[in-house]
């Protein structure tokens, strides 16, 4: 399985603290970098739930200048393709960081964090931000989108038209957990929800967007096993991101890679990507609620009444 398949989800792995974990993957995605340093939200920042985790980190990062001068040179020692996650509070913020990264050794891809639930978003739409970044860099651009958008496939089409080279699906969803004793929020600002319960939502997003656009997709959200990874590939992902599982099982990359190889061998195929979009051959799931409420079947296009 030589083709790149496994990445980490941005913010779920400190590659400098655990380089062996990073090297067990096919590429490393950095924490989101903003133009200026950010301390992030006040503690408490993480809360476990019954079926996942809430985080309210708030894009804590060293800022663009320090990242380029200090962090990026150290990340090159991983000898893995580096995906730089870029954030900001305006299209200009994003574009200026992309311009600064353009041409940097070791940087393979830019992932545009267009959907962090823990900070205010840029006033411009996703397509406008992608267009600004496309003008600023020749690096591949992956747009990281939220499953909370009611018109997710329209957003996917818009960023494709604006020059995105791929999609990262999905970011966390905003959630809330209460302290059972005080009945107050466990995280002051709520947080982004991730973990096993996010998987069906993420699969649906990948499935819908794979039908809507021709872009490669990094699928992520609740991946815990080789079968989970294979399901994302079958839904339309070409790469798979590991997130929350890395907190509880830092060795998940190697384990999931091994499990994925077994899943492939049991199906008597040579590579997981031979099952890319396998789910789309089934008529049972021809429609998707993400696709603007339209149920699409061969020879039949009608509005859903659900």
Describe the fold and architecture:
With 306 residues, the protein is α/β, with parallel strands linked by helices. It has one domain: TIM Barrel. It is 30% helix and 19% strand. It is built from 9 helices and 14 strands. The strands form 3 sheets. Strands 1-12-11-8-7-6-5-2 form an 8-stranded parallel sheet. A 4-stranded antiparallel sheet has the order 3-4-10-9, with no helix packed on it. Strands 13-14 form a two-stranded antiparallel ribbon. The protein is globular, with a radius of gyration of 19 Å. The N and C termini lie far apart (42 Å). Mean pLDDT is 90; it is low at 283-290 and 292-306.
- Average of per-residue pLDDT values: 90
CATH level-4 homologous superfamily: Aldolase class I
**Discrete helix count:** 9
Q: How far do the termini sit from each other?
A: 42 Å
Strand residues, percent: 15-25%
Order of helices and strands: EHEEEHEHEHEHEEEHEHEHHEE
- Integer-rounded radius of gyration: 19 Å
Report the principal-axis shape: globular
User: Per CATH, what is the topology?
Assistant: TIM Barrel
**Domains, number:** 1
Strand order of the largest sheet: 1-12-11-8-7-6-5-2
Structural class: alpha/beta
């Amino acid at each position: 399985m030589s083709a790149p398949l496994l990445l980490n989800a941005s913010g779920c792995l400190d590659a400098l603290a655990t380089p062996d974990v990073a090297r067990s993957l096919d590429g490393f995605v950095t924490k989101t970098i903003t133009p200026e340093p950010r301390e992030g939200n006040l503690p408490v920042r993480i809360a476990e739930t019954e079926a996942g985790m809430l985080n309210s980190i708030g894009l804590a990062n060293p800022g663009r200048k320090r990242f380029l001068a200090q962090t990026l040179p150290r990340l090159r020692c991983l000898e893995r393709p580096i995906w730089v996650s870029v954030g900001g509070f305006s299209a200009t913020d994003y574009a200026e960081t992309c311009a600064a990264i353009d041409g940097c050794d070791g940087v393979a891809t830019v992932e545009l964090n267009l959907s962090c639930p823990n900070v205010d978003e840029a006033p411009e739409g996703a397509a406008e931000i992608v267009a600004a970044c496309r003008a600023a860099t020749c690096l591949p651009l992956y747009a990281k989108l939220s499953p909370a958008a009611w018109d997710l496939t329209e957003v996917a089409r818009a960023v494709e038209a604006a020059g995105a080279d791929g999609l990262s699906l999905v970011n966390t969803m905003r959630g809330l957990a209460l302290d059972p004793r005080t009945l107050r929020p466990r995280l002051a600002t709520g947080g982004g929800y991730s973990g096993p319960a996010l998987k069906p939502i993420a699969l649906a997003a990948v499935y819908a967007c794979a039908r809507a656009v021709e872009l490669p997709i990094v699928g992520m959200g609740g991946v815990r096993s080789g079968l989970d990874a294979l399901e994302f590939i079958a839904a339309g992902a070409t790469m798979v991101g590991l997130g929350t599982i890395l907190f509880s099982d830092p060795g998940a990359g190697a384990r999931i890679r091994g499990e994925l190889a077994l899943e492939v061998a049991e199906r008597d195929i040579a590579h997981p990507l031979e099952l890319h979009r396998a789910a789309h051959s089934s008529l049972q799931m021809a429609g998707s609620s993400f696709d603007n409420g339209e149920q699409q079947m061969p020879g039949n296009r009608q509005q859903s009444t659900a």
